[in-house]
Amino acid sequence: MKYFKPVAMAALAGCFFGFTSCDEDEDGFYNERYMETTQIVEIQTQPSYSVGDYLFVTADISRYLQEIGQPDPLDIFTTTGGAQQFTFTYRLEKRQNDDTFASVVLSTNDLEIISGEAQSTEFIVADAVYNPVLETYVYHVGMPLLEPGQYRFSYGVNSDAIDKVELRSRSQGNNLNLNIISRTTQLDNQGFYTFQVQ
Predict the structure, then answer these.
(1) How far apart are CA 10 and CA 29, in angstroms?
(2) What is the DSSP string of 14-60?
(3) pTM of the full predicted structure?
(4) Which domain holds residue 15?
(5) Overall domain count for the chain
(6) Do 18 and 103 fall within a single domain?
(7) Is residue 36 domain-shared with residue 131, that is, in the same domain?
């Protein structure tokens, strides 16, 4: 990433000499805002799993979202300038013979996409898509469980959070990017939902 350094140095020099208006708060500069809410993304758990079952993840995010500690809901559609999607990531891993876990690599065509959008590599990039009739961002996608064994599921590819799901609006142009931190109670104290497939 050495080729980014001259650009960063030029931007810093511009701030120093007053050629640009610089915000010491990077979130202000990038037009980022954060809010925290309760569980809006869920794993559809079942008592037991067999080969051929699907592990479904759902999101049902009202346009008028209640923020923790605030008396009135926030209109997240208007706040983001009409963002059509909120994106989050998750990963499914399977225990290997040496007791390590490896990502379950699926193709996007393997997924059961009922609503929303998803792309699959070593993890899933999930988009809860705005439904103007329901005034809700919706996502309902299943991952096939193709082999027996022990599995674990986690949110966020580069996240340290163990009890939260991090979603980000796909805002266009100069509109505000809204980051929603959604609490979840479905993960263990290491940030995983662990289950067995028979």
Answers:
(1) 16
(2) HHHTTSS---SSHHHHTTEEEEEES--EEEE--S-B-TT-EEEEEEE
(3) 0.83
(4) 1-29
(5) 2
(6) no
(7) yes
